Amino acid sequence: MGRLKYHPQRDYRTGRPIGTVVAELQSAQRQSILLQSTAPKSAELLWFYACPGHKKNPGSGGYNTPSPWGRSTFYEDRGFQGRHYECSSDHANLQPYFSRCNSVRVDSGCWMLYEQPNYSGCQYFLRRGDYPTTSSGWLSDSIRSCRLIPYASSHRIRIYEREDYRGQMVEITEDCPCLQDRFHFSDIHSFHVLEGYWVLYEMPNYRGRQYLLRPGEYRRYQDWGAMNARVGSLRRVMDFY
């Protein structure tokens, strides 16, 4: 038996202590975690593994939301039938695992799917839910790579009317279904994402081509992969479940 480690734990919602985690390091392959409650009426023994099949060490760090534990399953046929592949992290090339994608089930997290390998081509934003068919046209049956979008507790983005952060600037912290109605311009040539992850839509009301904006600088529309500067709406990436 290995040594024991004690880690005080708190409720992320209230900041109050809820107990102590006792980590029993039994071997290089596994770690048991026992939560000792400050009001010891019951206890749970949990085993966490980094990979399926009870392999590798558990990942370190704190998890104040289940969103980082993302999971999505891609099916070759409609209605969640046929050959399928389960994914729990970014994947630059899904081609070896299925030839086409006609339904998707997102169990947790927010995802961006791409038509081409290496996160290129048309993008499709999915939240938790069942997507039994792609035939309606909003999602391609050619999905070749995917990203699990990290959780963010706050969102802030600055939009600029011209390239290189010139012209009129507006800072946004909430979803915006129509930039034209709210700010009276529809062409945006540069972004500065200060906090959180955002999805840019080419048309109002979250329609048209989609582009994932990660924290960082976008000095011209080519930087986010667009063919022009037209932007109709912006939405924060959030998982409400």
Automatic annotation (TrEMBL):
Keywords: Eye lens protein, Repeat. GO terms for biological process: lens development in camera-type eye; visual perception. Belongs to the beta/gamma-crystallin family. It comes from Castor canadensis (American beaver). Crystallins are the dominant structural components of the vertebrate eye lens. One of its GO terms (molecular function) is structural constituent of eye lens. Pfam families: Crystall (PF00030). This is Gamma-crystallin E-like. It comes from the Eukaryota. The gene is LOC109692651. Residues 70-108, 109-150, 155-195, 196-238 form the Beta/gamma crystallin 'Greek key' domain. InterPro entries: Beta/Gamma-Crystallin, Beta/gamma_crystallin, G_crystallin-like.
